[in-house]
Amino acid sequence: MKYSYLILILIITFSCKNDKKMNTKPSIENENRMSFFVGTYTDTKSEGVYTYALSDSGKIKKVGLAAKTENPSFLTKSTDGNYLLAVNELNSVNGMGTVESYKIVGDSLELISKQSSGGAHPCFVATNKNGYVLTANYSSGNLGLLKLNEMGRLSELLDTQNHNKNIENEDKTARAHSAYFIGSNQFISADLGTNQLWFSSVDTENDKIVPNQPPTLQIAGENPGSRHLAFHPKKDWIYVINELNSTVSLIRKNKDEKYEVENSFSTLPKGYTEKSYCADIHISNDGKFLYGSNRGHNSIAIFEINQESGALKAIGYESVKGDWPRNFALSPNNEFLLVANQRSENIVSFKRDKITGLLTFVEEVKVPSPVCILF
Questions:
Q1: Is 352 in contact with 359 (CB distance < 8 Å)?
Q2: Phi/psi at 324 (nearest 5 deg)?
Q3: In whole angstroms, what is the distance from residue 302 CA to residue 280 CA?
Q4: What are the backbone dihedrals phi and psi of residue 251, each rounded to the nearest 5 degrees, phi first?
């Protein structure tokens, strides 16, 4: 009898230990997590900007609606990380798009101010440490200049830069698509309609946009459609992803310290002939790998960067497990790459191999019309 009782105790003890082992698999609730915001189009089920969490195993969980707003298609943060800026692409005030500023409160956003973007259909917003804000207005082909104060409030529109005035071909129309601050108050903007990079500065005494000399650089190709830029973290190299001809152009300084187009590289595998349009571009923080999104081919093109010349070597094309990868982002630790698939309405998480640069699928979550991911 005592022997049977002892066996029963051992069985129960062993079972409990096994249960504990089975339950030790971490969940996103007890793992470390990185929060990120998602900008969307609100023409389906979306209501605005959402907060999600990425676990240290690459799992994604919805936190909730951070701010209810119309068509926040592109997001950025102030340099101190306290405020979020969002452009309302399809909303308008007096025929103009708008830009909003929010205070970041944990996983939520509190609206502070809303101003005109200076043009129609803003699709990009950037800010610098001095508080200047640039909006790229796609349909009107211009940039808007505003300023964010220390309390996160936007000024009224200060100035605009019209890209249409530089077009010689009457059949073309400027399509300002992005703008990036470099240095203190210098910036570069990419225009899909003029196929140019625009080099400019902010006149801080008068709060005006002033063209540099030379003011523009023409991107090679019949109609490349220059969209977004990526800057090498260790070299003075700029990479332009071209939407219409599915290429990435390398921009380097020549012996006269002027930027010029060095070469262009296809984002599509050899033999692919279907329609496809590039969208976003990012470089790993070690400067070794470049990634670009293909809408149509529905992939992330993966390139190795030659550290001597800046040339790109295609090493893979990873399916995005969805349709129309509008925007993607590398996690702050660069261990994961997250893709926002606009048409299939999902965000997909990939584990990134820091040695090879290649991607491995982790999981996907349903998100209504996601178009921007911001950590």
A1: yes
A2: 70, 70
A3: 12
A4: -110, 125
My answer on whether omega of the bond before 269 falls inside 30° of 0, hence cis, is no
8 A C-beta contact, residue 99 and residue 85: yes
Distance (Å, whole) CA 207 – CA 158: 6
Where would I find the H helices in the chain? Answer: 2-22
Would you give the distance in Å from CA 199 to the centre of its chain?
Answer: 21
Rounded Cα gap, residues 176 and 164, in angstroms? 10
d(CA 112, CA 209): 25
Is residue 198 a contact partner of residue 188, using CB atoms and an 8 Å limit?
yes
One DSSP character per residue, 179-223 reads EEEETTTEEEEEETTTTEEEEEEEETTTTEEEEEEEEEEEPSSSS
Length of the chain: 375
Please give the Cα distance from 248 to 252 (Å, whole number): 13
Distance between CA 122 and CA 91 in Å, rounded? 9
Each residue's pLDDT expressed in tens, for the chain with a length of 375 residues: 444 544 444 444 444 444 444 344 444 555 678 999 999 999 999 999 999 999 999 999 999 999 999 999 999 999 999 999 999 997 665 678 999 999 999 999 999 999 999 999 999 999 999 999 999 999 999 999 999 999 999 999 999 999 998 676 666 899 999 999 998 899 999 999 999 999 999 999 999 999 999 999 999 898 999 999 999 999 999 999 999 999 999 999 998 889 999 999 999 999 999 999 999 999 999 999 999 999 999 999 999 999 999 999 999 999 999 999 999 999 999 999 999 999 999 999 999 999 999 999 999 999 999 999 999
Q: Which residues pair with 111 in a beta bridge?
A: 102
CB 338 within 8 A of CB 346: no
- Distance in angstroms (rounded) separating the CA atoms of residues 222 and 127: 32
Is the dihedral angle over the CA atoms 102, 87, 248, 259 positive or is it negative?
Answer: negative
- Cβ burial of 57 (10 Å; 0-12, 13-18, 19+) is middle
